[in-house]
Every structure is written in structure tokens, then in C-alpha cells.
Amino acid sequence: MKPPRSTTHRLHTAEPLRRTNFNRIFAAVYAAAVLLLLFRHALAIKSLLLSNLAYGSRFAVIFAMLISDIVLIFMWCTEQAYRMRPIRRKEFPENLKEIVREDELPALDVFICTADPYKEPPLDVANTALSVLAYDYPAEKLAVYVSDDGGSQLTLFAFLEAAKFAARWLPYCKKNDVLDRNPEAYFAKLGHDSDRISSEEIKKLKTMYNSMKLRIDIALEKGEVDEEFIKEEREREAFAKWTDDFTRRNHPTVIQIILNNAEDKDIGGHSMPNLIYLSREKSKALPHQFKAGAQNALLRVSATMTNAPIILTLDCDMYSNDPQTPLRVLCYFLGPDAQSNVAYVHCPQMFNGINKTDIYACENKFIFQINPRGYDGLLGPSYNGSCCFIRRRAFFGAPSSLESLEIPEIGPDHIPNRPIHSKEVLALAHHISSCNYENKTNWGSKIGVRYGSLVEDYFTSFRMHTQGWRTNFCYPKRAPFLGNAPISLVGLLSQCKRWCLGLIEVGFSKYSPIIYGTPKLGIVMALAYSYLGFWCTWSIPITIYAFLPQLALLNGVSIFPKGCQFPSVETHGYVLGVSISSSGGPTVTETWFLLYLFLVLGAYAQEYLDFSLEGGTFIRWWNYQRMWLIKGVTCYSFALAEYLLNCLNISTQGFNVTSKVLEDEQSKRYNKGIFEFGVSSPMFVSLTTAALVNLVSFIVGVVQVVTDTGKFEDLFMQIFLSGFVTLNAWPIYEAMFFRSDSGRIVTKTTVVSALLTLAFCKSASLIFSH
Ligand SMILES: O=c1ccn([C@@H]2O[C@H](COP(=O)(O)OP(=O)(O)O[C@H]3O[C@H](CO)[C@@H](O)[C@H](O)[C@H]3O)[C@@H](O)[C@H]2O)c(=O)[nH]1
Ligand SMILES: [Mn+2]
Question: How many angstroms separate the alpha carbon of residue 316 from the centre of ligand 2?
Fold first, then answer.
């Protein structure tokens, strides 16, 4: 007898990670240690109050250390949310065909955003589109929409070229079951495989690809599209929109149907998916809400044309690495186990082009790979803006209540029944992408991608979760998408600063994850959202720990419990630096030392465990923790400061698009694992100052204990700390003093930070002498 269909044809499963129980027990033990730490702080405050020094430097030190430990404890609590119920899901796309016929598959709209042809090379954007146009998915159900916030004819030109190439590329990929459907990635992998390169078909394709690349490059260099490249009348009409007064900040809407499924065929006579270019209207006088605004325009325009129930959002710096991904993801949207309240299925953002040791930790393993598993066992991962398959309906209100819309044709239930290039459709599409269309509507507040934060993705998913939506994480063996991470230090830090600023905007808004989130999501999920929301507060403990103990050390002031005794001192029974007192147990100060040891090693070790179980190497983890320290004194701090200035209306930051281009020399250095500074940035000043203060205090500390061995025990932890930072900061000293290439730290930065270091040391000696 045949077993019931639903059990044999499971489309997905979920199982808890094996380390869950360990995580929970460890969290309990660690929590006890945290309480002890607070007790120690209480004791310190008590003894201070009993003494008469309440307002001296000791007060400042005790207070600062208390604040930093409170923030550390808070961040530790939020992080535990990811460790309480991590799960691993599995999909069985091979079972899908047992459940739905191909003609029953839902339509899929893909949104690709780009914003600047000089930071986001049009060829790469076009390759992103090619990689998804070539999905193993029925062409009549697939539409790719490109939003160009750069309003650039160069980008449009690249797409027109890509569409021509697609007519060959798509059938080639499908016939040969190609996995890498981004042509650039495909040809790069082909490399020097002489057998395959000599195949006539590949030769032809490659020549065609190269000549397309050349034309796009020529246009990019000239800054405009040459007449000779414009072959068809409708292309000429499109480019005619770039009149003299057309600028990226001020221009009318441009919509170009580049491929029309109903008409365009590939060289094998099969129809091709739709490909539509949109550059929404811009006016200098009106806010355009950056990527969030672009996505909302895409939501409306696509609704009038294809209105697919599932939308894939992709940044132009990511591309499909697996043509089967849509089918895999549908395992969550279709079949007997599908839940109608799943808003989206998120795939991890993964990157290529990262150097072997990932010196800048730009892989962001915790954010994109590890933490989402933790979220997934709760209500589901937060949205990272790209590589995400979203149910269109989720943009239009809670699962059970649909928000009303100003025009029914843009709602999720509307069935488009006119040809996409019909006059009516195009007229409506132009109307709804005008820059004041959203005035007095619910777009950005209750509908669509939400406005009000520089991290529209995080904010939008938070709002969706609080409305009752759930989300899933889909992380198969083969990366579904690959992309570029910023691989220049300043680029990475600026990106991180933008994220932090956006996150803290939500953290302290009326939608704060803790206050607004807890009643709606439960405390654990609210904590998970808070980790990111308050991400930049890491800066408080990191900055304090990067300066205060070191400045105290310079003055021979001890601020931590006693540590090891100096080895030359004659005592017996030292185990791991802990002296055994005559009664046999550790003494009180040494117990506190053990507590610190446990707290620090415990946190580091658990983090390393999570990292390595997700496939990370030791050296990558080392670099990750280094970047955490670096970010602490740079982007986290600057974001927090900027947020405070914003609150006082002093400064406002926009969405600075990260550059995806790198000079040759820079690339070479990056691939060798050499840090890239080169430009001057205020963030580099704080970074180099921290590095110098630690170096100086480490040297002075060592000199102090060598000359007076009795001090070793008192100052051990501070010497260890500054030594640890000095070790981490090695590439910074190199870039300041030993390098002559153009990626070194500019002299101005070195001089300023040396002066600042001097000033800090001088003021510290004044303060600590009181
Ligand atoms: O005014 C703008 C600015 C940006 N973008 C696009 O937004 C995407 C992300 O920009 P990028 O400079 O690459 O920023 P990242 O920091 O790398 O982006 C991360 O962070 C963003 C904000 O949280 C998310 O939207 C992204 O999906 C996520 O990858 C790119 O495709 C841009 O073209 C626009 O369309 N319009
Ligand atoms: Mn990006």
C-alpha cells in the first residue's frame, strides 16, 4: 500500500543543532559568573564609598569599568538568543515535481537594485541579471526588474547588450546543465581548460561575451553610449530620454521593456523571461528613500506588469550561483507542510573574492551564516536586503489583514491581464514611479519596504515579524548566491558605520526591539533583534577597555584583580598562574582573577566553537576578533557618535553606496593579506591612537615589572591586555612605520595620532596622580 503522500514527499525538514543543550547549560553557568562579576563591582563601589576618595580618579575608573561591563553583559544576553534554539533545515526539491506540475509553479519576479555605474560596474550588474534570467524556471513565469537609482544610460546600455547575449547564453546553460550561470564566473572557472575552450560553441560564446564587455567598457570610459552602438529604433527612443538636463538626481521616469516574454525568443526559438529596466523619477527637492524607495517603486511597477506572488530581492553585487535555487526555496512555499504565514525564505549572503584569511572579516560569518540559524529556531531570520525570496503579500499588511491600497492594480491580488508594453500598463507604471506618488499614502509606513532607517531590510523584517509573519532560512551546501564584499578597509568600515547607524536608529526608536518587540515577539526573539539594534554599543566597552586599563598601567595603577605572580619569585604550587594558599584553596583576589579568566576565555572559546563548526578556520576567526576590536574604536564608535549628533540635528548621513571597484595595486595587496589604509579618514586616527597607546603602555608596563618585580601580580592583567591589543595591532604599526607602498597609513594620520597619544598619556598621568 502506498503511504500517504505527505509523508513520502516531504519538501523540507528542520532539526535542532547538536550543540543546543551545551549552549543552554553554558549560558546558565556563564550567567552565574556574570552575577559574580556584578557582585565584584558592587564590592568595589562599596569600598570606594567607605573610603574618602569618592570623587578621585578611582571613582572614574570604577564607574567606567562598571558601564563597560554592563554593556558587555547586555550584549552577551542578546547574543544568547541565537544560541537557545538554533536549527538546521533541509529541502528536497526533487520531491517538488510529485506535488506540483511545472505549469502550477508560481510566477517569480526578481528585483535587482543598482545605484551608481562608477561604483557598481554595469557589466557586473548585467551579469547578475544574466545569472537569474538563466534560472531553471519556466521563462513565462520569470521576470527580472532592474532598478537604476543612478539613472544611467550606461546601465541601460549594459542591459540591452546583456539581453542580446542572453539569447545565446540561456539555451547554452540549459542544454549543458551549467551551474555557474553568471558568464563572468563561468568563463573565469573555465580558465585554461583547453578541451572545453576549444569547443566551437564556447569559443563563439566567449567572443560574443568579450565584445559585449568591450562595448560596455568603451561606453563607461566615454561616459555615454556611442551612436554606432545603438542599432534599433526603440533603443534610440530610450536613450533620447537622456536630455541635457537629465541628471541622476533630477530626471523623469525611464521604463524600458528590454525582453518581453510574449515576443522575444532565444536562438533555439524558446521564449525568454521578461527583463525590465526602471529608473524611477527623481527630483532634488524630494526625498527618495534610497534603496527602500527603489524597492517600493519596483513593487508597484512589477505589480502592474507581472505581479508575481514571490519576489526575489537581489543587490547588484550578488549573483545566482545555483540555477535550482527557486525550486529549492519553493519547498517552503508549496506542498502540504507549507505555512501561509511565512513572509520570506532567506538564503545566506556569501562572497567570493575574499582573501584566504579574510583579513577584514568581510564574510560576516556570524551575521549571514551563523546567527540566522539561531533566529530560524525562533520566528525566523531578519532580512538582509538581498538573496531573499519574499511573498509579495507580506508587504501589504499582517497575514490576516490586507491593507487597503490607493490603486487596486498594484495590490497583491490583482491579476495583470494586459501585455506588459501596452499603453495603459506603461502609463500607470510611469504614474506610480513618479517621485511624489507616495505622498499621503501608506508606502513606507504600513506598506512595502519601511522607511526611517538606513537599514531598511532589518527594519522591514522587524515590522513584519511583529505583525505575525514568520520567516525561514535556507542554507544548502552549494551557496545559492555569491557576491562581492567591500575589500578595502575604509570601504568596509564605512559600510559597517552605515549599518550601525541605521540599526541604532531602530534600536532607540518607538519600534525598539526590546520595548515594542518583546510583547509581540517574546523576549528571546526580541533579544535576537536587539543584538543588531544595539550593535554599535559594543563601542563603549571596547573603547574603554582599549584605553583605560592601559593609561592606568602607564601610571602603575592596578585596576583588575591580581593575576600571576612573577615567575622569579620563589613560591611553590602555582597552577596556571593561580597561587594555592596555605589552606589549599585560592585566595580571594585570585578567585576574582579566575572569574575574569573564565569570562574572557569562555566567551572567546564559545565564539570560536560556533565559528569553526560553521566551517571557519582558526586564522579567519583570529581576524574576525581583530576586526571586532578595530570596529569597536572606529565604525561602532563613529556610528554611535553620529547617532547622538543626529539626535541634536547636527548631522545626517545618507546611504553611501559601497564601491565595488578596486585598483590593481590594492587588489594585489589585499590578496597578499596586507592591510589597506592609503586614504586619510577620522576612523583611522582613532584606530592608530588606540594602537599606539597600547604599544606604549605595554612597553612601559613591562619595564615597570622588570624594574620592580613585586608589581607583576598587580599589573598582570593590564599588561596582558595591552600585549594582546599590541599583538592584534601589528599590521597597524607596520602600516605606520615600516611600509612605503601607497596603502600605508598616511603621515598626517600617524602624526596626529602620535600627538593624541602624547596628550592622552600626559592627561592620564595628571589624573592618576590625584
Ligand atoms: O540610493 C540607493 C542606494 C543603494 N541602492 C542599492 O542598494 C544595494 C545595497 O547597497 P550597497 O552599497 O551594496 O550596500 P551594502 O551595505 O553592501 O548592502 C547591505 O546593506 C543594505 C542596507 O542594510 C541592504 O539593503 C543590502 O541588501 C545589504 O547587502 C545596492 O544594490 C545598491 O545599488 C539603491 O538602489 N539606491
Ligand atoms: Mn553590497
Answer: 8
The angle subtended at Cα 88 by Cα 609 and Cα 476, nearest 5°, is 100
Judge whether 457 counts as a catalytic residue.
yes
- DSSP assignment, residue 744? S
What is the CA(315)–ligand 1 centre distance, in A? Answer: 6
Kindly tell me if the per-residue pLDDT of 599 is higher than 70.
yes
Q: Looking at ligand 1, which atom is closest to the CA of residue 455?
A: 23
Q: Which of 657, 658, 659, 661 to mutate to test the pocket of ligand 1 (most atoms within 8 A of CB)?
A: 657
On whether 232 is known to bind a ligand per the annotation, the reply is: no
* First CA to last CA distance, the chain: 88
CA 659 to centroid of ligand 2, rounded, Å? 8
Q: Whose Cα sits closest to atom 32 in ligand 1?
A: 114
Grid cell at residue 70 = 554592563
Cα–Cα distance measured from residue 764 to residue 388, given in angstroms and rounded to the nearest whole number: 51
Torsion angles phi and psi, residue 662, rounded to 5: -140, 140
Q: How far apart are CA 101 and CA 304, in angstroms?
A: 26
For helices 200-222 and 153-176, angle between their N-to-C axes, nearest 10 degrees: 170
Closest to 263 (Cα-Cα) out of 271, 251, 255, 252 = 271
153: cell is 544610460
- From the list 109, 180, 322, 457, the catalytic residue is 457
Domain 103-485 has CATH 3.90.550.10: yes
For the chain, give every domain's residue range. Answer: 103-485, 535-566+587-768
Q: What is the pLDDT of residue 55?
A: 61
User: Pocket of ligand 1, candidates 113, 152, 311, 659: which has the most ligand atoms within 8 Å of its Cβ, to mutate?
Assistant: 113
533, 643 in Cβ contact below 8 A?
no
Q: What is the pTM of this model?
A: 0.94
Helix (H, G, I), strand (E, B) or coil at 725: helix
What is the distance, to the nearest Å, from the Cα of residue 743 to the centroid of all Cα atoms in its chain? Answer: 25
Helix axes 122-133, 200-222, angle to 10 degrees: 140
Q: Looking at ligand 1, which atom is closest to the CA of residue 119? A: 12
113 CA to centre of ligand 1 in angstroms:
8
- Dist. CA 756–CA 551, nearest whole Å: 13
Residue in the block written with cell 589549599: 584
Q: Which ligand is nearest to the CA of 655?
A: 1
E strands, 392-532, in order? 470-473, 481-483
478-532 pLDDT per residue, tens: 999 999 998 889 999 999 999 999 999 999 999 999 999 999 999 999 999 999 9
Write down the pLDDT at residue 571. 39
pLDDT value for 564: 56
* CA atoms within 13 A of residue 201's CA, in its CB half-sphere: 9
| Nearest ligand for residue 297 CA | 1
